[in-house]
Amino acid sequence: MVDALDLPGLRVIQIHPATLASASEGGRVRRVEVEPTFIPTACPKCQSTRLYRHGLRRQSYADAPHFGEPTVLEVHRRRWRCRDCKTLFPDPLPEMDENRRATGRLIRFVQSRTLEHTFASIGRDVGISDVSVRHIFDDMVRDLERRYRFATPRWLGIDEVKIIGKYRCILTNVEKNTVYDLLDSRVMADLRTYFRQFPNRKDVELFSTDLWNNYATVAKEFFPDAIVVADRFHIQRMGTNGMEAARKAIRKGLTRKVRLQLKDERHVMLKHGSRLNDRGREILGAIHRDFPSLALAWRCKERFFAIWEQTDRQSASEAMDAWIASVPPEMAVFFKEALSALATRRNHILNYFDHRITNAYTESINRLAKSINRMGRGYSLEVIRAKMLYDTNALKKGTMVERVATPVLDDDAGGLGVGYMTYTTARSVRSRVRYDTRLVCYGAHIPTLCDKLEAGAFEDQPAGIQLPNTCSSNCALQNGN
C-alpha cells in the first residue's frame, strides 16, 4: 500500500472510486483514506517519553492527480498528550504542507505549471480553487526572488509599458536581450525608491531611454557615470507623428470620400521612401500632386529619417542642423515635437552615433505583457511580472557561462598551471591571474518569451495532465509527480 501511494509515512486504508465533487471543487474527485505509520516516541517540547493517545481526527489534504483525476487524502490522524508537560500534538506528517492542506508533491505539481498555464485551468485539473493556486504561486515567486539575482546590465534599457490601464516601468538588459525587471510605476518618487537599492550602479555603462523626463532624472541622479543614449526609434517616431499631424490638419476641408481615401493610404506617407514599391510610389505621387502641403510634410519627414543614415556623430550633428534650417515655418507646428527634442536632448540623441544601442525589444515586451494579461483574463501585475521574469526556458537562455579573472599572489598559486596566465603590474611586481568559470543569469530572454507567445503558450487552456490509467488492482495508484 505504501509503495502504491508513494508517500513515506502513510499507509492506505481504503480507496474510494472517483465520485462527483462538491460544487466548489467541481468535476470528479478520488478519495483515499490513509493513516500515519510513524508513532512518536518523545514529546516535541520536553522530550519526555511518557505519552498517551488523546483521540483521533480526520483531516483532508489535496494530493496530486491520479489517473488524471483530482485526489484527496483523508488522513486518520491521531493526537498525543505528554503526561509530564501536558503538551498536545498530532502525528507528524513530513510530506504535508500544513498551511495549504496539501501534499508537498501537489505544491510542486502546481508550481511547475503556474508559469505555463492560467490559475483557473490548473485549479480545475487538480481540484483546488484558483485562489489556492494563486497563494502557491505567490510562495513560489518569493522563493524565486531569493534564488535569482540578475546580474546588473552594462547596457541598461528603461521604458514604459501600459498594463491594466496604467503605465509601468520596464527595465531590460539591452546587451543580452533580457528582461531585468518590471516596476509597478514610473512616478519619480517610486523610481527613486527603487533605484536607491539598485545593485552595482557603477557597472552600468550605457543608459538607453526615451525622452521621458523622469528617466533622464534617474540617469543623472543614480547613474552619473553612464552615457545616456536616446532611443532611436522613439525619436524617429516623432517624424511620422509630424507627417500624421499634417495629414489630419487638412482633412477638415475635404469630402468624406477623400478623407477616407487619405486615411487608407496613410501607410504610404508614413513608410520610408526607399521601402516603397512601384504601387506605393504611384500612390504617393498622386497625393503629392493633389496635396502640395502633404508633399512638403513628407519631404520634411524623409529628411528627418535621413539623419539616422549618417555614419558618425559629426555628420549626424550637421544633418540635424541642416534639417532644422530646412523646416518651413508652416511645417514647424507639425514637427514641433521633433524640433524640441533636437534642441533639448541633442547630446543624448547624438550619443546613439557613438553607441548604437536601442530599446527595440521593449516594444515586444509591451505586446507580451498585454497578451499575457488578456489570455489570463485579468491577471494582476505581480502575476504578469513573474510569468515574464521567471519563465524556465527564457531564464535558461538568459543564463550564460562566463570566465572571471581573479588575481592571485605568487605564494598562493603554487606554480603556473592550466587556467593561469602571468602579467606585470604598473609596479613591475610579477603576479598571476586565475580564470574561473561561473553561471551568470542576466534575466529572461526576450526572443524566447516572444516565441512562446507566438506558439500560444500563455493561452487559457487545460494544463495538459497526462497520467497513465492502468492498474492491476483497486489499490494501484499512480505517482502524481
Automatic annotation (TrEMBL):
Q: Name one Pfam family in it.
A: DDE_Tnp_ISL3
Q: Which InterPro entries is this protein grouped with?
A: Transpos_ISL3, Transposase_DDE, Transposase_Znf
Q: In what residue span(s) does the Transposase IS204/IS1001/IS1096/IS1165 DDE domain sit?
A: 156-386
Q: Which residues form the Transposase IS204/IS1001/IS1096/IS1165 zinc-finger domain?
A: 40-85
**PANTHER family the record matches:** TRANSPOSASE FOR INSERTION SEQUENCE ELEMENT IS1557
Name under which the protein is recorded: ISL3 family transposase
Specify the species.
Answer: Metallibacterium scheffleri
